[in-house]
Amino acid sequence: MTEPQITEDIIEAHGLKPEEYAEILRLLNRDPTFTELGIFSAMWNEHCSYKSSKKWLRTLPTDGPQVICGPGENAGIVDIGDGQAVVFKMESHNHPSYIEPYQGAATGVGGILRDVFTMGARPIAAMNALSFGETAHPKTRQLVHGVVEGIGGYGNCFGVPTVGGEVRFHPAYNGNCLVNAFAAGLADTDKIFYSAASGVGMPVVYLGAKTGRDGVGGATMASAEFDDTIEEKRPTVQVGDPFTEKRLMEATLELMATGAVISIQDMGAAGLTCSAVEMGDKGGLGIRLNLDAVPQRETHMTAYEMMLSESQERMLMVLKPEKEAEARAVFDKWDLDFAIVGETIPEDRFVIMHQGECWADLPLSKLSSSAPEYDRPWVPTAEAPAMEDVPGIDPIDGLKALLAAPNYASKHWVYEQYDTQVMADTIRTPGLGAGVVRVHGTDKALAFTSDVTPRYVRANPVEGGKQAVAEAYRNLTAVGALPLATTDNLNFGNPEKPEIMGQFVGAIQGIGAAVAALDMPIVSGNVSLYNETDGQAILPTPTIGAVGLIDHLDHLIAGTARDGHVALVIGETAGHLGQSALLAEVFNREDGDAPHVDLDAEKRNGDFIRANRDTIKACTDLSDGGLAMAAFEMAQAAGVGVTLDAGDTPTLFGEDQARYLVACNFDQAEALMVAAGQAGVPIASVGRFGGDTVRMGETEAPLDELTAIYRSGFITAVDGPA
What we know:
globular; 35% helix; alpha+beta; Phosphoribosyl-aminoimidazole Synthetase, Chain A, domain 2
């Protein structure tokens, strides 16, 4: 078996810059083999090495008394008391989902679930954050249908409830959709598993499904821009099998209970290469692999293909040798492959044997911790020009425009395709802010949310980064949860462009300031760069996934407004319309600055909501669409009308931050006002709930009419008129 000669074209096709290849030659003091080139390509690409972002990721706050494990492992781990922990992470599967939407989205779900149960946690919740191009674009409907079906097809079969997420449309995503997948699980704090190998001469064991040629080169593909050769990349998309993944989870958790596991790692991006290198590097050991022992579902696979395959539902483990028979029996029972494919060695080497030949012999540590790291040139995003005047508009007409827009219409078409109740612990399903799941067998619950407003980030990356965290904080607070920690999924364009790198740096600065001020450290995450097609970048989209704790179900805020309830706004309203939903949907404008985020006010107002949750019947944060949208959503969820006293555009549609809309009885409203005065928290009565119409100032419309618009807007956009 001979390998191709390495040429400049082959080096470029592997995503390596000339200077990076020169560094490979320096490290090896010889030319690499084709397999070795593939291994370097996999480990040194953006997706695996974070070479453009590491410098800035190190500035993020990642510690806190609640943090058991921060970034660097398969997922982050946060203490929730009583010897339990929540394990969670968010990751992107953007490029694969654009090429092959069903399998791209499905395997994104599968990969994030493996990240969680690899740590010893049983998954209890999933979310997804999806960004698509404009609905009139010829590819958008196909992408929406394929992605949503892929998420549902995998998650529903696996058996984990999808409890939250977001969907947006914007022309900037026409050539590059975003599919960000989140998963969370529960583990006992004394039964957490990590990936660092330990001990010399320990067996390295391959677990799960067989290896095929699907996904070869996937990580490299995910680290490059798209162009008109996109269809040629279809074979780099993995194929998933949720039923195999379900068996793999059960087998893995059962295996962990035997005490056989020294370390364990999911085979995700770059497959066998990345999992083996990370385990060895974290443990300060080398790894020798014998590919003849790798279970294969295709014939005549080369060393290159086996090392770079991203076939799904696979794990790699370092095993206690004396437990081999017991461990093998577990995987035999679940009808999954269990194969000893190598061993740990004391030398800093990564040795690949196949058919009696050595196909790679590399310094293992240089593949991971010594990967290239760049300090990319960047320029701060220019200050947004002053916003032109916003014409007055009939408030009901403005509300109707928002309700009909697929960005703000009901997303029930999406989440009704997901199983939201499996495992029987879901308390709050998608569509009403944060999702809530009971901690099984206890009176505690966990709340989950995913948030970002890309228009804000483009206009002002620092404030937009802050706002993504602040909105996540508010969504958790609005259900009575104490925010614990966050995971980030940082989706940007080409970092080699200084203006794009400037967006990234600004967003990181804003996120860092917000998670520090709101005590929500970043414990895991993912960076997805080069989200561009033919030089056109996506909107900067740093998605924030956040988790909060409700220490007793009695403290949950999950009621609905009722006839006679008073409507109160907590927080200061100044009427900020820059970059607002109203501007975008009614006036087709995206001008002005993002709203300013006062982190002290966010913390103070959030603390006030939680301290007074017994007085509050229903609560939602104010974000896109301002008071008008929040009041309608609260009214629609309750099936009761609402009257707002104001009729002016800035008050109704302004997107000032640090605000909540609260519904409660009149006597409770009085008590809240007194408490707010004592706490120095702005509070105002803005109207009341009741009747069957939505009235704003002097204009009104039947709630049923508005609800029909709200429930049909998204479906019309993705399926056409009924």
